């Protein structure tokens, strides 16, 4: 077990630079969201800063938590009451820092959610689609063409969650576009790219019609399921670079 540590300010500065936070216009602040102790030795990573994640971080004697979905989203109530109060109180009572990285973690070309999803699914030559800002829509190709049923089975097996396939086209899937999380409306960009299939985390009622009428395979693979790999890879990177203790905590979320 390592005894290395890093001061909170240095960790914050490194993460902000590594993830190129200044580049992004986002829906919540990226970086340190709740201040904890000055030194960090043990970090916990997870997708969302929910109460179960915080409680497990406390049990693991964490000094800092790194998440993809943090606090202080635009248009949410600003007051610290109810669920938000309990979460933040638990962090402050235990002197645990909370770092949140939303779009910067989606877009990073190494540890990002989109890059990591491609790696998990075996998508080759992953690249950013330049017509969508902030490097959020990616595309690539499969090693060999697959039927929609086989690709749906593959996604479900890898992500350990049953994916939803929409589309009645019979063409095999060779080229794919994707964006993790709630990115279902990028389907029109995927159509414009001319790929065979599009993957996102969430699905909307309108997505069905878009896929059916534009003759493209669509797969909803789960918001949480598609975004669990980026934050884990980030934690592993930080732990290796600075010699910290790292625990990834996967709080079950079927959505």
TrEMBL record:
This is Nif3-like dinuclear metal center hexameric protein. Pfam families: DUF34_NIF3. It comes from Shewanella aestuarii. Belongs to the GTP cyclohydrolase I type 2/NIF3 family. Gene3D superfamilies: NIF3 (NGG1p interacting factor 3)-like (3.40.1390.30). Keywords: Metal-binding. Signal peptide: none annotated. NCBIfam families: YbgI_SA1388.
């Amino acid at each position: 077990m390592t005894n290395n540590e890093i001061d909170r300010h240095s960790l914050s500065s490194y993460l902000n630079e590594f993830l190129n936070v200044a580049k992004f216009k986002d829906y919540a602040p990226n970086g340190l969201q709740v201040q904890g102790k000055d030194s960090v030795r043990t970090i916990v990573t997870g997708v969302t800063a929910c109460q179960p994640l915080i409680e497990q971080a406390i049990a693991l004697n964490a000094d800092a938590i790194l998440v993809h979905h943090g606090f202080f989203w635009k248009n949410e109530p600003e007051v610290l009451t109810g669920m938000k109060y309990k979460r933040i109180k638990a962090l402050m009572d235990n002197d645990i820092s909370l770092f949140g990285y939303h779009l910067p973690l989606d877009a990073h070309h190494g540890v990002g959610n989109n890059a990591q999803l491609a790696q998990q699914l075996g998508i080759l030559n992953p690249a950013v689609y330049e017509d969508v800002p902030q490097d959020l829509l990616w595309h690539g190709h499969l090693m060999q063409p697959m039927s929609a049923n086989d690709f749906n089975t593959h996604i479900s097996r890898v992500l350990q969650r049953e994916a939803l396939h929409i589309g009645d086209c019979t063409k095999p899937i060779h080229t794919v576009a994707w964006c993790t999380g709630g990115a279902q409306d990028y389907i029109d960009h995927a159509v414009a790219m001319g790929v065979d299939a599009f993957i996102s985390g969430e699905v909307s009622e309108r997505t069905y019609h878009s896929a059916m009428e534009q003759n493209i395979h669509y797969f909803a693979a789960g918001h949480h399921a598609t975004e669990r790999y980026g934050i884990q890879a980030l934690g592993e990177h930080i732990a290796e670079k600075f010699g910290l203790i790292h625990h990834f905590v996967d709080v079950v979320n079927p959505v």
